[in-house]
Specification:
mainly alpha
């Protein structure tokens, strides 16, 4: 199967906005309308519905993994499977169905890592968990996990194309978190478990919206 077709399938699967889909199914507000405005599991969690947030996280991760499994089932080689993974990741952060304004890609990246190697995904998840527990910053944990991913992929002996995909995802993940990096440096980033009042959420949403323009 040729690479353009595999890439298109991966991109379309990655474009499925599960944060929006799950929120609608649970009768929740559109995650793009509050908090950070990010259509991802963390923002869905701000509604207080943990099940909806968990389902969003799982499905966002699965779409990266499933895209790669579909490519493999269609007879793609290692390069084709890697293309399917990065295409799904690109679909999540630049989704066709949300006018190319998507999430930050952490969960989908984890799914892609799992498609390459279970140990690779577990290693990066371990970094995320360690940093999250110690600092209580989800964004810092995501950045640390992303930064460690290329090193883990090399250490685990991943093929060149996999290391390249992991490295590209790392760069894009850091770029997507630039607003969080600014807040971390300013000491204004929200910690895990800290509840915001509605006014603070609206202010954060307005600030993030201005940063994206």
């Amino acid at each position: 199967m040729n690479l353009p077709v595999i890439a298109l399938l991966g991109y379309l699967l990655g474009s499925l906005p599960f944060a929006v889909i799950v929120s609608k199914a649970f009768g929740l507000a559109d995650p793009r309308s509050f908090g950070s405005g990010n259509p991802g599991a963390t923002n869905v969690l701000r509604t207080g519905n943990k099940l909806a947030a968990l389902l969003t996280l799982v499905w966002d991760a699965l779409k990266g993994w499933i895209a790669m499994q579909i490519a493999a089932a269609l007879g793609a080689d290692g390069q084709g499977i890697a293309v399917a993974g990065i295409a799904a990741f690109a679909g999540h952060i630049y989704p066709l169905f949300l006018k190319f304004k998507g999430g930050k890609g952490v969960a989908t990246a984890l799914g892609v890592l799992a498609g390459f190697s279970g140990w690779l995904a577990l290693s990066c998840a371990g970094v995320w968990l360690l940093v999250a527990v110690v600092t209580r910053y989800s964004s810092l944990a995501a950045l640390a996990a992303a930064a460690s991913a290329p090193a883990f992929s090399l250490w685990l002996g991943q093929p060149v194309q996999n290391v390249m995909v992991v490295s590209v995802m790392t760069v894009l993940l850091i770029q997507r978190h630039r607003g969080n990096i600014q807040k971390l440096l300013a000491g204004t980033e929200s910690r895990i478990g800290k509840k915001k009042d509605p006014a603070a959420n609206d202010a954060s949403f307005n600030q993030d919206s201005q940063e994206k323009k």
